Amino acid sequence: MMPADTLRFHGRAAELAGLDLEISKEAEAVLDRFESVHGHVVPASVREWFALAQGAAVLRKFSNDDMVYDAERLGREEIYYWPEDNGDWPDDVEEQEERPFDPVGSLGLLPFLVENQGVWVMAVRLDGSEDPPVVISFDDVTPSAVWQPHADRFSDLVHARIWDAPVHLHGKQLALPGAVEPLALLEVLRQDFISGPPTIDGIQRHSRDGDRQRVLLEQWRGQWHATVWAADETGLATLMAAVDPTTA
Predict the structure, then answer these.
(1) 194 vs 181: CA distance, rounded Å
(2) What is the rounded CA–CA span in Å between residue 216 and residue 224?
(3) Coil, strand or helix: which one is 167?
(4) φ, ψ at 155 (rounded to 5°)
(5) Cα distances (angstroms) measured from residue 59 to each of 2, 17, 18, 93, 244
(6) What is the spatial distance between Cα 20 and Cα 14, in angstroms, rounded to a whole number?
(7) How many CA atoms lie within 13 A of 54 on its CB side?
(8) Spatial separation of the C-alpha atoms in residues 157 and 149, rounded to whole Å
(9) Sign of CA dihedral 112, 117, 118, 121
(10) CA distance 2 to 9
(11) How many C-beta atoms lie closer than 10 Å to residue 210's C-beta?
């Protein structure tokens, strides 16, 4: 085992997850084989996480039963249906057929996570950086899929999903007024909290007490939402006392 602070990219995420830092020699060999087959270097942050014996399993655990690829699944061909639903069908085609697709070779994208009902797919953009950006597609993995930015760095995405999990599962919702930006709450968060891992989906994460108190703030469908979570009842009472008066 090695301590979390020996990780270059995922130390805090591993610490929050209580992850045993055991390197899988099998996973490392699979990642080496990926590089020889595809001619792409596995980005350092991606390799660091998926070489951990529990890396994929922990990311799967800290999600809503989403499918996280194991190291050996990374870079394999995807299957899509041709003609695509959003495309033009040739006159002589009556039924869709399954076709293989290589997103690494065709798009320079490495899918690694599929939402539990297949609504969206996340992929790493193989842009040559050590900690590459994460993009998301709501069109499956197809030649014509539209990929939108989701996180500037893969390490931010891993950290955010682990950070978010207890807030989503066990957090308490605060009532926020309509579409008006909660300025008083934001002022408290700016003064007394530190920012959590960033993503490009409009979610704001704030924490204190070593991440033992967390506030997740977001806006959707014209309504602001805040969810608070603390590691224990005392921390939750302290947290609510800090943020609840600002939402009146």
Answers:
(1) 19
(2) 11
(3) helix
(4) -65, -35
(5) 19, 9, 12, 41, 32
(6) 8
(7) 13
(8) 11
(9) negative
(10) 14
(11) 10
Integer Cα distance of 152 and 78 in angstroms: 24
Rounded to an integer, what distance in angstroms lies between the CA atom of residue 181 and that of residue 185?
A: 9
The answer to whether 60 and 13 are in contact (CB under 8 A) is no
pLDDT (tens digit per residue) in 116-159: 998 999 999 999 999 999 999 998 899 989 999 999 999 999 99
- Rounded Cα distance, 201 and 29, in Å: 34
Tokens of 120: 């969206």
The pLDDT tens digits for 83-107 are: 777 666 676 777 878 889 999 999 9
DSSP 197: -
Cβ contacts of residue 210 below 8 Å, gap of 6+?
A: none
Residue corresponding to tokens 């807030």: 167
Per DSSP, 23 falls in state: B
Q: Find where tokens 């070593």 sit.
A: 210
* Distance in angstroms (rounded) separating the CA atoms of residues 136 and 18: 27
**Cα–Cα dist 202/137, whole Å:** 17
Residue 181: how many CA atoms within 13 Å on its side-chain side?
5
Tokens at 182, concatenated? 């909660």
Residue carrying structure tokens 């190291």: 71
